[in-house]
Each structure stands twice: as structure tokens, then as C-alpha cells.
Fold this sequence. Notes:
Elements lengths: L1 H38 L14 H14 L23 H17 L15 H34 L3 H12 L2 H11 L2 H16 L3 H12 L9 H17 L3 H22 L1 H4 L2 H11 L14 H8 L7 H25 L3 H18 L9 H10 L4 H14 L1 H6 L3 H21 L7 H23 L9 H26 L10
Helix pairs in contact: 1-5, 1-6, 2-3, 4-5, 4-7, 5-19, 7-8, 8-10, 9-10, 9-14, 9-15, 14-15, 15-16, 15-21, 16-17, 17-19, 17-20, 17-21, 20-21
Amino acid sequence: MSLYCDTMIYKNLIPIYLKKVFNEKLILMIAVLFRWFVSLHDYSGKSKTPMYGDYEAQRHWMEVTISLPTTQWYFNSSDNDLLYWGLDYPPLTAYHSYLNGLVFKKILPESVQLNTSRGFESKFHKLLMRYSVLIVDLLIFIPAVYWFFRQFFKIKNNNQLSQTMIIALTLLYPGIILIDYGHFQYNCVSLGLFVASVASMFANKTILTCILFSMALNYKQMELYHALPFFFYYIGFVYEIYKKRSFFKALKTLSILVLSVTITFLLLWLPFISDPKQMFQVIHRIFPLERGVFEDKVSNIWCLINVLYKLRDINNQTMATICLLTTLISVLPTCLDLLKNPSKIKFLLSLINCSLSFFLFSFQVHEKSILLVAIPVLMYAPQNAFVCTWFLSLTTFSMLPLLIRDNLLIPFISLSLIYFIVYNNIEKLMLQNKNTSKLHLLRNLSLLGCVILTFCTLTLKPPQKYPHLWPLFISVYSCVHFFLFLIYFNFSQLMLNVPKKKLY
């Protein structure tokens, strides 16, 4: 009898121990393993002369930054042809390329040799490039995710199982794995700095928040998608202090915010601010209006409208103005609401609404920019795992044409199926599936549409007259979903403080 009781006790205790201690380590191991499996596949522009792809762009920036002085990094010259993957990201990206270049010069110097290493490809070089992504992921993005959810669950006081499962949901998200480890980019750096800045804000570390987000913005200018919520949250926060008749405290807080951002920017731009010509050239490179709004089939409003009315005929300056005004109008409700009610949960929703508005309406959008929306959605997922995971599935699907071009179809299907299984189990464990039978049906029909379009893309040859038919269908289908999600998340934010009896 004693043996039976001991057995039953251990049988109950072991799963609890595993859930609380072992699971997070296991999730990290699986997340790294999945990343490495994807890295074994092809990358952007492999062996596709003369321009190759993003893999070559990152290699070329290493070559340029270690071979030329900073004054020539962003200028066209015989040693730096800007038409061949010229630097078009802010200084922190250039510094990162420089550090990588120093390492590659030491280990594989022929891969970063000025003017002779274009299109350099070898198995060892691919290994080094993949390692360079994994290292910054392990140093920046993954720790930031753990830090954020530690802070989030301190505030929300959810159970340990929920925290563990949400970390799994974030680290196993296919989108960022496929783009960084398949297509090849370093989104884990800018997005990691962004997540860390939000974690810092949740921990009430104002100076560190400003420094981290300024660094994220100086790594990739697309972090502007997240800038407005930070601005309006802190302005609203300062105003709340002022309303309590603490004028000097409000002034002190505002001064700390301004100085933190200013000093960080000055330090990062130090090699370029001494000469106005240098500074304006960098700005010109990171905001290239001449490239237009239609670089590819992107799941935004302009590509959708272009099907019915040819917006391509409108000149870039006019189109840029239209995009700017439309984007500002679309972010106005979420920003004003955050200004009036600066709470942390509203802040997360505002990050989603602003970034999704920028993706749908702004100028010069890439399909990969949907990652800037996906990460805030993952951060909000503990509040509504069902809707968030639905949205996340659509984000990965929206990048399908790009992933097919990069020969990443197998990891796309594999990771998407695994993710579907993971979040279905999370719904059950978190009891998110109560009274949502109609929503489940709607979601399943939505995902079935993704499966059908994927099948058609792979098996049915489009008419000769419309060679890009399936990518267009995918972008339109995804765009309609994203627009409806924008309405939903805006409504969620605006109604957050309204009593339930007023919602019906």
C-alpha cells in the first residue's frame, strides 16, 4: 500500500516539476533545433546571378564596412556601387556588419575581399553565416522574450503553465525562423531590442526603455512601426504625473525621456553628424522614395486597390503623400486612446494597431514587414491566444510566394503544421476554447482557404496572361484578413475600459 501511495505521489509530482522547471529548457532546445533545421535549407538568391539576394546583401555589407572608411559606407563610388546592395539601413546595422566582417576576415578572408568576393558561396561560408544569426538570436531575441514574459506575468499574475506555453508559442513562431534562418536576415536583432525595450517598460525602467528602443530604431528604420505607441504612452504618462500637480516631477520625467533618446542617437550617429552631407546621405539611403510602393506582391491595401485601379500610374511623391495621410488617419484612434489612457495592456494593443496600420497603408512595404506586427501580437497572446494564433498563421502564409522562391516550401509546411498543433494544445491548456465554437469554425474555414491557395499555387499553372495570379490571390486573401484584424484589435483597445454591460 505504501509503495502504491509513493508511486501515485511521484506520478503526480513529476509532471508538475517538468512543467515548471524542465519545460522552458526543453522549449529552448526545440526552438534552437528548429532554427538549425531550417538553416540547412536554401537562402535568398542562392546562385542567382547577378544580384543574388538578401544573403549576398548581408555578406556584401560586411565587405564594404571593413574595407572602406565610415565616410564612404553610404556613398556611391568605384569601390561601393550602391546599385549593388548598397547600405540602406541605419548606422547600427552597419556596425553589426562591420563586427561580422572582422570575424569573417579572420576565419574566411576571401569571403569579404573588396571587389572580388561578389556572390561568394561555399558550405563553410553558409555555416558561418547561419552561426552569425544564431549567435545574435541567442544573445538578444530569445533572452528578450523570456524577460518580457517574466515581467508580463508578474503584472497579470497568470499561472506558470500559461507563461511556459506562451514562450513556446513565441519561440516556435514560424515567420521569424523562416525569414532569419531560411531567407536570411537579422530581424532577431531589431525585434529583440524592441521586445527588450517593452520588457524594460513593463519593469518601469524608463531610461533603459528609451536606450533599447532607440537602438532598435537605429538598427532598422522599420521600427518606426512601433514608435508612435512609445511616444503617446510616455506623453500620456507624463501628463498623468502633471495632473497630480507634480509639475517638477513631470518635467524631470520628460527631460529623462528626451535626453535618453537624444544621447543614444548622438552616440550611434557620431561618425556621420559632423558633416551634414554625410548625415543627409544616410537619411536618403534609409528612406528611398524613388523605389516606389510596388516592389513586390505585398498583402497591403495598395496592392489590393491596384487590382481594381492602377495606382502604379501615380508618381512616387504623390503616392508617398497619400500613404502618409492614410497611415496617420488609421493610427489616430489607437494613439489618442493610448494618450488618454496610458495603460500597459492598451500599449500592447496600440503596438499591434500602429504596426498593422503601417503595414497596410504606409509607403515602401515589404512582405517581411509583417514580422513587425507578428511580434506585438505574440506579446499580447496571453490575453487572447485564440485570435492571436489565428492572426499569426496568416502572417506566415502571407509570405508564401517569397518562401517558395527561396526553396523553403518544406520548412514552411513543416513548421506551420507543428505550430498549428502547438497552439491547439495551448488553447486547451489555457481553456481558451470555451464558447468559441462559431469562431473556431470561422478560423478553420479561414485556414482552409490558406491550404487551398497553397495547393493551387503548387499544382495549378496560372494562365499565361496572368503569370502572377496565385501570389496576387495570396496577397489579396491575406490583406482582407489583416484589415479585419485591424478593426478587431482597434475595437479591443477602445473597449478595454468599458464595462461589459455597455458592450451589448
